[in-house]
Amino acid sequence: METKTNLQKIGLVTAVTLVVANMIGTGVFTSLGFQVLGIPHAFTILMLWLIGGVAALCGAFTYGELGARFPRSGGEYHFLSKIYNPFLGFLSGWVSFVVGFTAPIAAAAMAAGRYSSRVLTDINIISATNQELVMKLVAIVLCIIIALVHLNKLKTISVFQNFFTILKITLVLVLIIFGFFVSSPQTISFMPSEAAIDMIFSSSFAISLVFVMYAYSGWNASSYIASEIDRPQKNLPLSLFLGTLIVILLYVPVNAIFLHTTPISEMMGQEEVGYIASSYIFGKIGGVVMGLLISVGLISAISSMTWAGPRVIQVMGEDYRFFKIFSKKNKNEIPSFAILIQTILVIIMIITSTFETVIYYIGFTLTLSSFLTVLGIYIVRFRKEATTAIYKTWGYPITPAIYLFVTAWMMVYVIKEKPIVVLFSFITVFIGAIVYLINKNIEKNERNKI
Question: What is the rounded distance in angstroms from the CA atom of residue 144 to the CA atom of residue 164?
């Protein structure tokens, strides 16, 4: 139940929908087309989604305890500052703001635009030559409208978020249910074979895990707005667990349905996997309707990240002089300037980037940050600090180790296979270090003037 005592706090339901909305977005409706390029076995692909889900759940268990111990907005920025030192926390916050939310928002908006433009092309409203332009225009307009919604009161934002999240969950359930009854399923086996099992240990599997972990990213979403959650020491861990579990129970079957209903050759290298599969499940007209609805459903992903992202830079603005302007709020207690700047960065990324490059860039950079955060649970426990947290990591020390193993395995292969993407990730971190030093110098000069 949502709290009635404080309109500037959200309850468990909205916290869960925030997690679900962050996770069910671009990845599940787009990434399968890239996975089937390197993995021809249905069993291996489902294992990819299951392993990614287990890793995300293990991460959620760990963040639950960290959130209960350190109940303040900011996510990794706040956790790493407390566990390690402010410099590492700053770098994580910088990455979250520059990459962690702007890039996924851009990717989600581009996916929504891609679905819309593909549908409009197929029904002959626009020509194929204008598809890219329409995609980017739709993406930009969506981001601006959603940013304006997020300048309103927290209650209005909650209603908006809950509505579009429920719509998106309904769409996924419709795809799963009707997909089971498709009249002409594909002749594809989901049973394990020696070749399918061997592929689990291949570089193609590890690289595809980047897309899957991106699809699961957002399992930590409510930790970014901990200060806005009612009774965060209880509701924050619960929201992370319930949100992640709901998504796992949707992701594995919906990908099975995509493979069950749609020829792999049709999906290879395609972003609009949900639209293509819908055409096979519902026919051409039904596919058009579902394609447009999926585009609308992605609004909740854009909205959830528009909500969470500015809270990171807002908290940094409270702690660092260089970012002080980002801590300012409007009359609705919303970090309006942070939302404005984030939206501008998103629009720049939409105009200048390609979808696949954005995904790899996000995947490696954010995984590195969450890896250090989950590792921090061992440091926190070793210190044996006094805490009033009522939640402890389920399955400790095994569950954090599972997350660390899976993500380390993935990052090693990304470094080997995509060195340019990794280089840009480290350049982003290096720029953050320079900004930190500039801020330190500003604060030093201000102290000297006193």
Answer: 17
pLDDT at 354: 65
In a domain, 398, yes or no: yes
Taking a C-beta distance cutoff of 8 angstroms, is the pair 34, 354 a contact? no
- Higher pLDDT among residues 399 and 206, named by residue: 399
- Residue 144 pLDDT class (50, 70, 90 cuts): very high
Domain that holds residue 165: 12-443
Grouping H, G, I as helix, E, B as strand and the rest as coil, residue 271 is: coil
- Contacts of residue 96, defined as CB under 8 A and 6 or more positions apart, other chains included, come to 75, 76, 77, 224, 309, 312, 366, 369
> What pLDDT score does 4 carry?
42
| 5 is a domain residue | no
Summarize the chain as % helix, strand, coil (round to 5).
80, 0, 20
Domain count, the chain: 1
Is 4 a member of any domain?
no
Domain containing 270 — which CATH number?
1.20.1740.10
The two tokens of residue 448 are 């000297």
Residue 381 falls inside a structural domain: yes
User: 18 CB contacts (<8 Å, ≥6 apart)?
Assistant: 10, 161, 165, 221, 222, 225, 239, 243, 304, 307, 308
Residue 5 pLDDT greater than 70, yes or no = no
CA atoms within 13 A on the CB side of 286: 13
- Please report which confidence band the pLDDT of residue 386 belongs to, taking 50, 70 and 90 as the band edges: low
